[in-house]
Structures are given as structure tokens and as C-alpha cells.
């Protein structure tokens, strides 16, 4: 696929969705696509679905149009997912994806198996938002669309910090900036700013974090009862694993929090050659080589032991190949 217009030929009804517990890239890529289609393909009846996006994204145009529930049966002419790595991670509208006449996926996860009819997956791209930009007519990217795509890029690159940032990412960011949105405010308010409680929780996780393997692996965790105490949910914990990763000497950072009793959401980050996507895929998840995630059941100790066993296995393989 070269341009989104190819997909939209003859389409009258369209559904768009991102992944569960949406991050900035999921929100940014879905909104960028939605706003672009609203503007340039007004004849298409487009619906956008998201699992309750954080209020900090409220500066994006037409966020009020986002549907957080799927109601009734619908057979869209086309259903597009953005930033979704597997079919079972489609937020809210999974059943509409299944019922759609045609499906497409715009993504950058190396673990994506290509679950749609049309798959546009670029694992080298910083973000799904960057992949989306490549499918748009650059002259038609207005300020609203640019703001959404920029949001996605800064979130998945940690504001141009992670190794997934490329010269092309920077070029696109420069093009987007020309539309004149308030980029420093977006970076501050949607990425860096934390609520008082979010900071408290991060502090607590860092305080209680443990080092394993002579300091090469760091583990941070949060139990359900503590999440209830602080009244936080998964989206409030963004940024914690990135902070753990910044511990000097650490190769891999692991952060886990309890989704329900003895079921953990696991986030993995790598500082080097260790491929955390392989670890996540082994446990049924996925992601990218340096940032991946999965869900695991068992006691916290079992989960950590199982993860570190896979990490050690890979470390040994790497040492043998040296
Ligand atoms: P997270 O640790 O949740 O921030 O996720 C890091 C990266 O891995 C993101 O690009 C996610 O989309 C991806 N990811 C997280 N959990 C899963 C999962 N269970 N299956 C596939 N990809 C995942
Ligand atoms: Mn994402
Ligand atoms: Mn992404």
C-alpha cells in the first residue's frame, strides 16, 4: 500500500480502532487517521473506537467523537486498526473487526503476524503514527492531523530518545511542526507531566525495586491492593518502566503490576542486544526488540523467575555466539 486512498476506494462505512489500554501512539495514530478521513473523505461514515483514552489527550481535535463502547451489530465496509499487534488486542470493537467486509492494519510491531486482509507493517518505524504518516498525502496533513501524529511519535520514541528514532522520524516531526501546533505544551502535558498520585506510585515502585543478576536486571512491581490504595489503573503507570530502564548498569528492566489476583501485566525494556520481544512472545505477548509486553499468571515470584530464566537463556546464547 502506498497511499491510504487506495484502501478507501468505494468504502462508505469505516471503523477505526487501536489497542487495549491505549498509549499515545495508539491514540495519536487512530485520531490522525480519523481526522484525515473526516476532512478529505467526508462521504465516508467513519467511527472511531478506543478504550477510555486518558483525559490528557483532550487537546486532540474531535476527541469527543470517540466511542468507548461497541453497541449493536455492524458490518463495516472497511475496518482499520492502528498500533495493534494482534487481533485479540483490538480495543472495544474487536467484534466489528471480525464482521467487517474488509480489514486493514497499520502497525510497527515486529511481532505482528499480519492478521488483517491488508497489512501495512513497518517494524523499523518509530511508531504506528509514523507508518500512518507515510500513507498520507503530505500536503493534506493539516494542523489537527499533525498534532495527533506528533503525539504518537513523541510517546513511542520517549520524545526522540529511544533507539527506534531515525532520521526519517526527525524529518517527519519537522514537517509536522510546520503546521504550527504548540509542540512543547504537548510534550509537557501529554508525556512528561504526572499527577501527584502517579509520581507517588512511581516513587514507591522505584523504592521497592530489586536488582538481580549482579545488577543487570531490575524488577519493579505493584500489587493489586497497592493499586487500589492509590486508586490507580494501568494507564497511570506509564513511564515507570522507562525510569527503571535508566538505572546505570541495567541491561533489562521488568515492570509488573497485578491486573487481577495473580495475573500480571508485564512490561519489558532492553538497553542493548537482549531482544525482549522474544521473551514476551515466549509468554504469549509481543512488541519490539527493545520494548515489549505480555500477561502472565502465577505468584509474583513465579512470574519473575520465569522471566529471568528466559532472559538468562538468551544471555547465554549471546555469550556462546560471541
Ligand atoms: P508496554 O510495556 O505495555 O508499554 O508495551 C511495550 C510494547 O509491547 C508496545 O509496543 C506494546 O504494544 C507491545 N505489547 C505490550 N503487551 C503486549 C502483548 N500482550 N501482546 C503484544 N504486544 C504487546
Ligand atoms: Mn502502543
Ligand atoms: Mn506503537
What features would you describe in this structure?
39% of the residues lie in helices and 18% in strands. The protein contains 12 helices and 11 strands. Strand 6 and strand 7 (217-222) form a beta hairpin. The protein is an alpha/beta fold. The longest helix is centred in the C-terminal third of the chain and has 22 residues, at 300-321. Strands 6-7-8-9-11-10 form a 6-stranded mixed β-sheet. Strands 2-1-3-4-5 form a 5-stranded parallel β-sheet. It is globular. It has helices at residues 4-8, 24-40, 94-99, 128-133, 143-157, 167-177, 183-192, 196-208, 224-230, 240-245, 276-282, 300-321, and strands spanning 13-17, 45-49, 78-82, 103-107, 118-121, 210-212, 217-222, 252-260, 263-270, 286-287, 291-297. The protein binds adenosine monophosphate and manganese (II) ion (2 copies). The site of one manganese (II) ion has 6 residues, from loops.
Distinct ligands, ions and cofactors found in the model: adenosine monophosphate, manganese (II) ion
Distance between the termini: 40 Å
Largest sheet: 6 strands, mixed
Mean pLDDT: 97
User: Number of DSSP helices?
Assistant: 12
Give the uncertain stretches in residue-range form: none
How many strand elements? Answer: 11
Shape: globular
Helix content: 25-40%
Structural class: alpha/beta
Strand order of the largest sheet: 6-7-8-9-11-10
Radius of gyration: 20 Å
Amino acid at each position: 500500500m502506498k497511499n491510504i486512498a487506495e484502501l478507501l476506494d468505494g468504502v462508505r462505512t469505516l471503523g477505526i480502532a487501536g489497542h487495549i489500554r491505549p498509549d499515545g501512539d495508539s491514540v495519536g495514530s487512530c485520531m490522525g487517521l480519523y481526522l484525515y478521513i473526516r476532512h478529505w473523505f467526508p462521504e465516508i461514515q467513519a467511527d472511531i473506537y478506543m478504550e477510555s483514552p486518558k483525559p490528557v489527550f483532550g487537546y486532540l481535535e474531535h476527541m469527543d467523537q470517540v466511542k468507548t463502547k461497541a453497541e449493536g451489530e455492524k458490518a463495516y465496509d472497511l475496518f482499520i486498526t492502528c498500533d495493534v499487534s494482534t487481533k485479540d488486542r483490538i480495543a472495544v470493537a474487536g467484534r466489528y473487526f471480525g464482521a467487517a467486509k474488509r480489514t486493514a492494519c497499520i502497525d510497527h510491531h515486529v511481532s505482528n503476524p499480519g492478521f488483517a486482509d491488508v497489512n501495512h507493517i513497518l517494524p523499523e518505524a518509530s511508531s504506528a503514527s509514523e507508518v500512518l504518516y507515510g500513507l498520507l498525502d503530505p500536503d493534506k496533513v493539516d494542523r489537527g492531523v499533525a498534532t495527533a501524529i506528533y503525539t504518537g511519535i513523541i510517546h513511542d520514541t520517549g520524545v526522540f530518545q529511544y533507539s527506534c528514532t531515525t532520521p526519517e522520524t526527525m524529518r517527519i516531526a519537522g514537517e509536522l511542526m510546520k503546521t504550527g501546533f504548540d509542540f512543547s505544551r504537548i510534550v509537557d502535558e501529554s508525556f512528561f507531566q504526572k499527577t501527584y498520585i502517579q509520581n507517588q506510585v512511581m516513587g514507591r515502585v522505584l523504592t521497592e525495586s530489586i536488582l538481580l543478576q549482579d545488577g543487570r536486571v531490575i524488577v519493579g512491581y505493584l500489587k493489586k491492593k497497592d493499586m487500589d490504595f492509590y486508586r490507580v489503573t494501568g494507564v497511570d503507570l506509564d513511564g515507570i518502566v522507562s525510569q527503571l530502564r535508566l538505572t546505570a548498569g541495567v541491561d533489562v528492566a521488568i515492570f509488573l503490576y497485578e491486573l487481577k489476583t495473580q495475573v500480571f501485566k508485564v512490561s519489558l525494556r532492553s538497553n542493548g542486544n537482549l531482544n525482549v520481544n522474544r521473551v514476551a512472545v515466549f509468554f504469549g505477548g509481543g512488541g519490539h526488540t527493545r520494548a515489549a509486553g505480555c500477561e502472565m499468571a502465577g505468584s509474583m515470584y513465579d512470574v519473575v523467575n520465569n522471566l529471568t530464566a528466559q532472559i538468562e537463556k538468551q544471555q547465554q546464547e549471546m555469550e556462546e555466539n560471541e
